[in-house]
TrEMBL record:
Keyword Iron attached: yes
Reported cofactor(s): [4Fe-4S] cluster
Name by which UniProt lists this protein: His-Xaa-Ser system radical SAM maturase HxsB
Radical SAM core domain sequence ranges: 89-321
Pfam families: Radical_SAM
Keyword tags: Iron, Iron-sulfur, Metal-binding, S-adenosyl-L-methionine
Residue ranges the record marks as coiled coil: none
Length: 479
């Protein structure tokens, strides 16, 4: 019960109905409470009648407070909101270098037009040097440099050159560096592994599930893509260490019936992270859409089944984290941004992550350079070698920022999940050819809305195992 000595008022919040009598309300700071129709009405009209513990909870979650707030409270709320956006406020931290587009695979959903010849599909040494130097123009103290392709291991010489150049420069800079190479691992050799071990380089690969499914999604003439990836993985683990390789799943129509099998496969392979990524609407995936794509409802059913299997394995004592859920839970449950470039508003494209492409140009994201492979250069930010500050002030980057400010986007402005999420203008552009489209029609919004609904329903459940897991995954370092 409130007294007149400490006047209290209701602060802005947004809410969403999860089920007939189950509502989640989210304050400006991203704190949440669960309500039913009656308690929602009481909160809005008669919160003075709430019990002292209820009032205390609502105050601690910034639903209630002194009218106009005190200067200290206003600072606290601002800093809590800023902490949620740390990744996009501190300069690009993820720098993706695409040394070559060469790749031996012909994946049916590949977003880039793979090329088997070197000519015109590999970064020049001048551009590579310029990209390495530009990385240090970012204000971010922690820098992740990721090599993507094609298959970057086909030009290991360029990877080695870049890593050595960056590390030499870092002697004076003293940034916290992390290197990742994303590859099929088919070209991996002992010599490469020794280099990666010496330079603390992590490897990332794709494993779509069991052998038959993986090889169907990622055809090779020898039909042995899965076997060769596993061979590379075991070489890396032997020389670099057991945690040397992370893997992710691209979900195609073929995957839908394998939800549990895919998760089990990751456990068999002794992997502790699984990232169940939906198919993007770019590149070859569009051309093969009839064979590969699926509805959002189909993906949601697949994801929920796979997710339950992930929980099952954790209950059995095998730690396994679904990365997409982990990113969302970090937003919901932690006061500190986990540093993921996804789910940022303004968008992390360009602000948190930047791509130096083999073609000599800079793009705001992987998806944007994939669109360029299809002949759409509308999301180019500039040329490699241009000052980073200039690139980040380019008209394209400005547009991406403006189009991704949830507060000003119809739909997002009223969305309960706006503190955690925001429009993805690159995704919108890929689908509609413009960075602005009705938000509810975008794949990004449909998937995130569903994922937040799903996770909040689980958080509201009585499952203590899930709650423990959710808080573990929500830690800024991803648990
Ligand atoms: S993109 Fe969709 S889910 Fe995300 S904040 Fe906007 S309306 Fe909400």
């Amino acid at each position: 019960m409130l007294t007149d000595a400490y006047p209290t008022t209701l602060y802005p919040f947004r809410f969403r109905r999860l089920a007939p009598d189950n509502i989640v309300a989210v304050s400006e700071t991203g704190d949440h409470i669960f309500l039913n129709d009656s308690t929602l009405s009481d909160l809005v009209h008669r919160f003075a009648n709430f019990s002292a513990p209820q009032i205390a909870e609502l105050k601690s979650k910034f639903f209630l407070g002194p009218p106009g707030g005190t200067p200290g409270l206003r600072r606290l709320i601002s800093s809590r909101i800023a902490a949620k956006h740390e990744t996009v406020l501190s300069g690009p931290s993820l720098h993706i270098i695409v040394p070559t587009l060469q790749c031996a695979h012909s994946c049916r959903y590949c977003q880039v037009s793979r090329a088997l010849d070197d000519e015109g599909h590999t970064m020049s040494m001048d551009d590579l040097d310029a990209a390495c130097d530009t990385i240090f123009e970012s204000r971010a103290q922690a820098l992740t440099v990721e090599f993507q392709g094609g298959d970057p291991l086909l030009r290991f010489d360029l990877i080695r050159h870049a890593i050595e150049r960056i590390q030499t420069r870092n002697i004076g800079e003293q940034r916290h560096l992390r290197f990742v190479v994303t590859s099929t691992l088919h070209q991996l050799t002992e010599e490469m592994c020794q280099f990666f071990k010496a330079h603390k380089v992590y490897l990332s690969t794709s494993i779509d599930g069991p052998e038959e499914l993986h090889n169907r999604n990622r055809p090779l003439p020898g039909k042995d893509g899965y076997e060769r990836t596993l061979k590379g993985m075991s070489l890396a683990r032997r020389i670099i260490g057991v945690d040397a390789v992370a893997a992710l799943v691209t979900v195609t129509r073929n995957s839908l019936e394998y939800a549990e099998t895919i998760v089990d496969q990751y456990v068999d392979l002794k992997l502790h992270d699984i990232f169940l990524r939906p198919l993007s609407n770019y590149g070859f995936a569009v051309k093969n859409a009839h064979a590969l794509s699926y509805s959002h409802a189909e993906f949601a059913a697949f994801y929920a089944q796979a997710f339950e299997r992930v929980i099952y394995w954790n209950r059995q004592g095998y730690p396994l984290r679904e990365v997409g859920a982990s990113i969302a839970l970090n937003k919901v449950l932690s006061t500190h941004d986990g540093g993921y470039v996804d789910l940022q508003s303004p968008s992390g494209a360009g602000l948190a992550a930047i791509v130096y492409n083999y073609d000599g140009f800079i793009y705001p994201s992987d998806e944007a350079r994939m669109l360029a492979e299809m002949g759409d250069f509308g999301l180019r930010l500039g040329k490699i070698g241009q000052p980073l500050a200039q690139v980040l002030k380019s008209p394209v980057q400005r547009d991406l920022i403006q189009a991704s400010l949830g507060r000003y986007v119809p739909g997002c402005d009223e969305c309960a999940y706006r503190t955690y999420c925001g429009p993805d203008p690159v995704n919108t552009y890929g689908r509609f050819g413009t960075t602005r489209a009705p938000i509810y029609l975008t794949d990004h919004c449909q998937r995130q809305m569903w994922l937040f609904d799903y996770l909040f329903q689980k958080l509201h459940g009585e499952d203590e195992d899930f709650l423990n897991l959710a808080f573990e995954w929500a830690k800024p370092n991803g648990g």
